[in-house]
Automatic annotation (TrEMBL):
Residues 24-130 form the TonB-dependent receptor plug domain. Gene3D superfamilies: TonB-dependent receptor, beta-barrel domain. Residues 235-705 form the TonB-dependent receptor-like beta-barrel domain. It is a multi-pass membrane protein. InterPro entries: Beta-barrel_TonB, Beta-barrel_TonB_sf, Plug_dom, TonB-dep_rcpt-like. Belongs to the TonB-dependent receptor family. Keywords: Cell outer membrane, Ion transport, Iron, Iron transport, Membrane, Receptor, TonB box, Transmembrane, Transmembrane beta strand, Transport. This is TonB-dependent receptor. It comes from the Bacteria.
C-alpha cells in the first residue's frame, strides 16, 4: 500500500459520446474509450488492432477495400451500393460508414470511442448496433513537431510526423504517415510482388480559427492512398507448383518457399484513394447554449483485382471497382444546465455509390474445373500445373480471354433526420435520459450486367441474366422513429448503475437485379424489409481507491426482427436476404488499475451468444451462429514506465488477446469438404523502449504476434460460391525498431 500513497488522484477518463464532455463513469451507455497516448504506447496504427483492446468489437481487415466491423456479433461489411451499414463509423463527427470508404489510417489521433448498442440519436441511423468514433488531433498555439521512423522484417519501413503552431486566432497542424511492407505470403508467379504487402500514405492538414473566446472553427482535410499488393486467396483444393494447400505453408521446394501462386497479372492488388473535407463550427451562444455545425464531404475510389480461385489457373479472375461520394450537414443546438442537459438537431445526408465487378476466365479451364467437360483429366494437376484444353475447344490461346463480363450496382441514398436527446437529473442520484430520431430516406438502386455467351454451350458461363449494358432501376421511400431511454443511478460517489432500452434499424434494401423470363431478361426487384433490433441493457461503472481501479460491466439482450444476411449466389454476386428473427445475449467487462506509479494494468472480456433463432421459418440458417463473432474474447495488458535517471526513462507494454472459434459464413457449414471456420487464437505483442527527456527522443523495439501464431483472417470468400473456397492467412510475427524525435 505504500506505493499508492505516492500517487495523486488518477485522471478520470472523459468522453463526448452524448455530445458533451462527461466522465465515462457518468455516461449511461456501454462505451470504451482510448486516448491517442495509449494507442501510441501500444503501437496501434491499424484499425483491426482496436479489437484487441475493446470488448464486443471485432474489426476484420481483409484489405483496406474490404474491412468488416462487428459489434456484439453483428457484422457490417457489405460492399454493395444498395445495402445499408449496421455500424456507424464516425471520423471527426461525420458518418463514413460505407464499407469501401470506411477504412483509414490511425495517425495523430486524439481519442477513439466505441459505443455499444443502438445509438440512433447520438450517431445516426447507421448505428443500429453501435458506433466507432475517431477524433483526430487539432492545431494548437504553441509550436510542436515530431517525427517517428521505423524499420522491420519483411522490408517494413514507416515514417509518421506532425507539426503544429500558430497565434491566438489562427493555428495550423500538418500530420502525415507512410507505411510500406513486403508481402508475407510468397507469390511464386514470375516477377510479381508477394501477397498481403502494404503501401499506405496519408496526409492531414488542418486549421483552427478562434476569432473569439466563444467561437471555434475547425477545417480538416484528409487524403489517403493505399497501394497494397494482392490479397492471398489460397486454395485448399489445389496446391501451387511444388507446394501444399496450407494457407500458412512455407514448405521448401526446389530451393524456394511456396505459399501461394497466382497467374501473375501485373495489376493484381489494390489502388484506393480517399479524400475527406470537414468543417466544424462550435459557437457558445451563452453559458447554457451551444450551436454546432458539421459540414463534410468524402469521396473514395477503390480498385481491387484478386485471384478468387487461389491457383495459377486463369479460372476465377475477379475485380471490384467501387466509388462513392457523400455530403452531410448537421446542425445541433445543445443546452447545458444544472439539472437539464441535451440537444436537438437536424441533419441531411446524401450518398451516391457504384460497385462494378468484372469477371474473366479461360473458358476451357472454367468448364473443366466446374466438371462440365468429359475430358477425364483434372483442371489442376497434382504438381500444380494447369490442364489447358483451349486450342481444342475455342481455337484460342492461354493468354487470350474468350470469356469475360461484369455486373454492377448503383445506389443513391438521401436521408433527412430530426432528433433530440435530453437528460434530466430527477434527484442528485437519479438521472433519466430520453432521445428520439425521425428519419426519412429516399433510395434508388440500379443494376446492369454484360456477359458474353460461351463458345461451347451458347449460354453464359455464370448464371447471370445479362442485361447487355441496359440499366434496371427501382426506388423507394422509407421512414422510421428510433427512440432510446436511459436511467443512471448513483449508488454512491464511486459507483453508478445504468439501464437502457433502445431501438436500432438497418434500413430497407431496394435490391435490383435481373432475371430471365418468357419476354427475355427483365428486372428483378426485391424490397428487403428493414432489420430492427430492440436492445435491453444494464450495467455498473465504478472506481476504487481514488480512481486507481476503474471497472465497468454490462449485460445485454438484443432481439432482432427481419435479420438481414449477406449471401452469395452461384455467379459470385453478393446479395442481402431476410434470415428471419435472431437474438443476442452477452456480458462485457473492462478493468483498469494503476498498480504503482510505474505500472498500469488493463483487461477486457466478453461473452456473446449471438445466433439466428432456432425456428423452422428461418430455414437452413436456423440456430446458426453469427459470422466473425467468437463466443469468448479476452484482452489484457500492461503499460510500464520507469525513470532510470534524471533524463532517461524505460517504457514498455505487453498485450495478450484470446478469441474462441469463429465461423466465417452464416451457413456455419463446410464448403467442398473444407471447414469455413477458425479455431481459438491467442496472440501476444511486446514493446520495449528508452526515452531521453533532455533531447526529446525515444527508441522502441517491438514484436507483434510475438509467438508467430497461425490464424485466418477470412475463409470461403468468392471462390466458395463455385466450390473452391479460399483462405487468407493472418500476419506472422512482425518485429522492428522505431525512433521518435520531438521538437518543442
Amino acid at each position: 500500500m505504500a506505493a499508492y500513497a505516492e500517487l495523486d488522484d488518477v485522471e478520470r477518463i472523459t468522453v463526448t459520446t452524448q455530445k458533451r464532455v462527461q466522465a465515462i463513469q457518468d455516461v449511461p451507455v456501454t462505451v470504451s474509450a482510448f486516448n491517442g497516448e495509449m494507442l501510441e504506447q501500444l503501437g496501434i496504427v491499424d484499425l483491426d488492432v482496436l479489437s484487441e483492446i475493446t470488448p464486443g468489437l471485432i474489426i476484420q481487415e481483409q484489405s483496406p477495400n474490404n474491412p468488416g466491423f462487428v459489434i456484439r456479433g453483428i457484422t457490417s461489411d457489405s460492399g454493395s451500393s444498395q445495402a445499408a451499414p449496421r455500424v456507424s463509423v464516425y471520423y471527426n463527427g461525420t458518418d463514413i460508414s460505407r464499407s469501401r470508404g470506411s477504412y483509414f489510417e490511425l495517425f495523430d489521433i486524439e481519442r477513439v470511442e466505441v459505443v455499444k448498442g443502438p445509438q440512433a440519436t447520438l450517431f445516426g441511423t447507421a448505428a443500429s448496433v453501435g458506433a466507432l468514433s475517431v477524433t483526430t488531433r487539432k492545431p494548437q498555439e504553441d509550436f510542436e513537431a515530431g517525427i517517428t521512423a521505423g524499420l522491420g522484417n519483411f522490408s517494413a519501413r514507416s515514417v509518421q510526423g506532425y507539426i503544429t503552431g500558430g497565434q491566438p486566432t489562427v493555428q495550423g497542424r500538418l500530420a502525415f504517415t507512410y507505411r510500406e511492407r513486403a508481402g508475407y505470403i510468397e507469390n511464386i508467379a514470375v516477377n510479381q510482388p508477394d501477397l498481403n504487402g502494404i503501401e499506405r500514405f496519408g496526409i492531414r492538414p488542418s486549421l483552427r480559427f478562434t476569432p473569439s473566446e466563444d467561437l471555434t472553427i475547425d477545417l480538416v482535410y484528409n487524403y489517403e492512398r493505399n497501394s497494397d499488393t494482392g490479397t492471398s486467396f489460397k486454395s485448399r483444393r489445389f496446391a501451387p507448383t511444388g507446394g501444399d494447400t496450407s494457407p500458412f505453408s512455407f514448405v521448401e521446394a526446389s530451393g524456394s518457399p511456396v505459399a501461394a501462386e497466382v497467374l501473375g497479372k501485373a495489376d493484381l492488388g489494390i489502388d484506393r484513394t480517399v479524400k475527406d473535407l470537414n468543417l466544424t463550427l462550435n459557437w457558445d451562444l451563452n453559458e447554457h447554449w451551444q450551436l454546432t455545425s458539421i459540414s463534410a464531404q468524402r469521396r473514395f475510389d477503390s480498385l481491387e483485382v484478386f485471384d478468387a480461385d487461389g491457383t495459377q489457373a486463369w479460372f476465377l479472375e475477379f475485380a471490384e471497382d467501387a466509388t462513392g461520394k457523400q455530403f452531410s450537414q448537421e446542425l445541433r443546438l445543445a443546452y447545458s444546465g444544472q439539472k437539464l442537459n441535451g440537444f436537438v438537431g437536424v441533419s441531411y445526408f446524401d450518398e451516391e455509390g457504384h460497385q462494378r465487378v468484372p469477371f474473366s476466365t479461360e473458358e476451357s479451364i472454367f468448364l473443366n474445373c466446374m466438371g462440365m467437360l468429359p475430358s477425364g483429366v483434372p483442371c489442376i494437376n497434382a504438381d500444380g500445373s494447369v490442364t489447358v484444353l483451349t486450342p481444342l475447344l475455342t481455337q484460342g490461346a492461354f493468354d487470350v480471354l474468350p470469356y469475360q463480363g461484369y455486373f454492377q450496382n448503383f445506389g443513391e441514398h438521401t436521408a433527412y433526420s430530426a432528433f433530440f436527446d435530453l437528460s434530466y437529473a430527477v434527484t442528485k442520484r437519479l438521472e433519466l435520459t430520453a432521445g428520439l430520431r425521425y428519419v426519412r430516406e429516399d433510395k434508388t438502386s440500379r443494376y446492369a450486367s454484360n456477359f458474353g455467351n460461351s463458345v461451347l454451350a451458347g449460354v453464359p458461363l455464370l448464371p447471370v441474366a445479362s442485361t447487355n449494358d441496359v440499366i434496371f432501376s427501382a426506388d423507394g421511400r422509407f421512414s422510421s422513429w428510433l427512440p432510446r431511454f436511459n436511467a443512471l443511478y448513483r449508488l454512491n460517489d464511486n459507483l453508478n448503475f445504468y439501464a437502457t432500452v433502445s431501438k436500432g434499424r438497418r434500413s430497407e434494401v431496394v435490391d435490383v437485379g435481373s432475371t430471365q423470363s418468357a419476354e427475355g431478361v427483365v428486372p428483378r426487384v426485391d424490397i428487403i424489409p428493414a432489420e430492427t433490433v430492440w436492445n435491453y441493457e444494464a450495467g455498473l461503472k465504478g472506481s476504487l481507491n481514488a480512481n486507481r481501479l476503474r471497472y465497468a460491466v454490462s449485460f445485454f439482450y438484443q432481439d432482432y426482427t427481419n435479420f438481414q444476411v449477406t449471401l452469395q449466389d452461384d455467379a459470385g454476386n453478393f446479395f442481402v436476404d431476410n434470415a428471419g428473427d435472431a437474438n443476442n445475449i452477452g456480458v462485457e467487462a473492462e478493468l483498469k488499475a494503476t498498480i504503482t506509479p510505474d505500472l498500469e494494468w488493463f483487461a477486457n472480456l466478453a461473452w456473446i451468444d449471438a445466433k439466428i433463432d432456432e425456428n423452422s421459418s428461418n430455414g437452413d440458417l436456423a440456430g446458426n451462429r453469427f459470422r466473425l463473432q467468437p463466443e469468448y474474447t479476452v484482452g489484457t495488458g500492461v503499460l510500464y514506465g520507469r525513470d532510470l535517471s534524471r533524463h532517461y526513462r524505460m517504457t514498455g507494454s505487453v498485450l495478450y488477446t484470446f478469441r474462441s472459434d469463429v465461423f466465417f459464413e452464416e451457413d456455419n457449414a463446410p464448403v467442398a469438404g473444407f471447414d469455413i471456420s477458425q479455431a481459438a487464437v491467442q496472440q501476444t505483442s511486446l514493446r520495449l523502449g528508452l526515452e531521453n527527456s533532455q533531447h526529446n527522443w525515444a527508441i522502441t523495439l517491438f514484436a507483434n504476434n510475438m509467438f508467430n501464431k497461425e490464424y485466418l483472417v477470412d475463409a470461403g470468400n468468392t471462390g466458395a460460391a463455385f466450390g473452391y473456397p479460399s483462405f487468407i492467412a493472418g500476419p506472422p510475427r512482425m518485429v522492428g525498431l522505431e525512433l521518435r524525435k520531438t521538437f518543442m
